[in-house]
Amino acid sequence: ISFEAMESGGFNFTAPTGKAFTKIEMELQGPEGWDIANLGTGWTINDDMVNEIFTVTWTGSAASTVDLLKDADQFVGEFVKYIAFYLSE
User: Taking the model in full, what pTM does it have?
Assistant: First the structure.
């Protein structure tokens, strides 16, 4: 999923019935913002300044997300290049 996160309040995503998210990975346009984006706990941040790749990854088990990127309008790098959802089999 690729989109511009220009609104605050967050985004909710729900896994299909009988499935759960096992990993969520997001890449941002720039390095700014992950520290104030209210991602919650469990996220790993990887800032590859040389190649300008800025990703965050969550692993676990969840049927849905609530208010993902809640404060997206508060940081400069508000263009989310992609969000990848990995699902249980």
Answer: 0.78
